Amino acid sequence: MCLGLTACGGGGIEDTSTAAGTGGADCGDLRIAVNPWTGYVSNAHVVGQVAKEKLGCNVTYPDVKEEVGWQGMADGSIDTIVENWGHPDLVKKYIDEQGKVQDAGPTGGQGIIGWYVPPWMAEKYPDITDWNNLNKYADMFKTSESGDKGQLLDGDPSYVTNDEALVKNLGLDYQVVVGGSEAALIQSFKSAEQNKTPLLAYFYEPQWFFSEMKLVKVDLPPYVDGCDADPAKVNCDYPPYDLNKLISTSFADSGSPAVDLIKKFSWTNDDQNLVSKYIAEDGMSPDDAAQKWIDDNPDKVDAWLS
User: Fold this and answer.
1) Strands across the sheet containing 14-19
2) Is a pLDDT exceeding 90 seen at residue 21?
3) For a 10 Å CB count at each end of the chain, is N or C smaller?
4) What is the distance between the alpha carbons of residues 124 and 208, in angstroms, rounded to a whole number?
5) Predicted confidence band at 148 (pLDDT cuts at 50, 70, 90)?
6) How far apart are CA 169 and CA 174, in angstroms?
7) Gap between the Cα atoms of 103 and 222, Å rounded
8) 214 near 119, Cβ under 8 Å?
9) Measuring CA to CA, how many Å separate 79 from each of 38, 67, 139?
């Protein structure tokens, strides 16, 4: 997920999954942007499955980077983003100034971003969870990619974070290294714990993997309002995120019954993590995972449709 005031870059719209509804006469097309992490996929396919089954929508899931999803809502090629992580710059441009996008309310989930170490490290080096002590351990984190500095492993290249600025502004002897996908980050933590090798990495919640491994968060300087206002001068932890949904104004005005569904859609981190576990760990398809949760939670689904 892209964070702070810097927008995400790259990535065009590619429609990678199409699922026909039961006619779609009442709802028509519903194009749900999908961003590259499993929790988002869970949100998208639960909403999409309900929209197909209950409202007769023709649902598609264009795979896009975050900023491209906002652009898609503005140009009419995407109807909704179902898990948004802040983006005050994009809010200003597309909601406040252009009026092309609307806030569709909270997802019910809480987002946390930070730096984490595997459990064995926190147990053996308990003071490593205080950022003030990171330089003491920098040599331990050196890799071939980080050179003579400790490595801070980041995630998907499309995730825009504050980590480069944090390393610089906190005077840390570390080099940010981009590790790849969410799956690559998870595998790095698994390997570090199994082999007792050092790892300091960017990670986030909601996240199904915490049910498998209790990663330990490093305490950065506490977040206070405005401490991240200038992306180049950020020297504080990431803020807590009240995750929300977005819809294009043209979609909001379309009369589609899916508009109310998206606005009423709300669930917990635990709900999302369960569906994500079905997908990432149990190998279920996103639609099958979503359907299992829907079948097991009829009261929650009914509330979205009331």
Assistant:
1) 14-19, 58-63, 29-31
2) no
3) C
4) 25
5) very high
6) 12
7) 28
8) yes
9) 20, 14, 48
| CA–CA distances in Å: residue 122 to residues 119, 194, 217, 246 | 5, 14, 9, 38
Joined together, the tokens standing for residue 77 give 């090629």
Q: Read off the tokens for 97.
A: 């100034």
Query: CA-to-CA distance for 126 and 129, rounded, in angstroms?
Result: 6
Site of tokens 């309900």? 50
Alpha carbon distance 65, 73 (integer Å): 13
What string of H, E and C letters represents the secondary structure of the chain?
A: CCCCCCCCCCCCCEEEEEECCCCCCCCCEEEECECCCHHHHHHHHHHHHHHHHHHCCEEEEEECCHHHHHHHHHHCCCCEEEEECCCHHHHHHHHHHCCCEEEEEEEEEEEEEEEEECHHHHHHCHHHHEHHHHHHHHHHHECCCCCCCEEEEECCCCCCCCHHHHHHHCCCCEEEEECCCHHHHHHHHHHHHHHCCCCCEEEEECCHHHHCCCCEECECCCCCCCCCCCHHHCCCCCCCEEEEEEEEHHHHCCCCCHHHHHHHCCCCHHHHHHHHHHHHCCCCCHHHHHHHHHHHCHHHHHHHHC
Q: What is the pLDDT at residue 1?
A: 61
- For the stretch 151-197, pLDDT in tens is 999 988 777 689 999 999 999 999 999 988 899 999 999 999 999 99
Token pair listed for 195: 């082999």
Q: Are 113 and 238 in contact (CB under 8 A)?
A: yes
C-alpha–C-alpha distance, residues 223 and 184, integer Å: 28
pTM recorded for the entire structure: 0.85
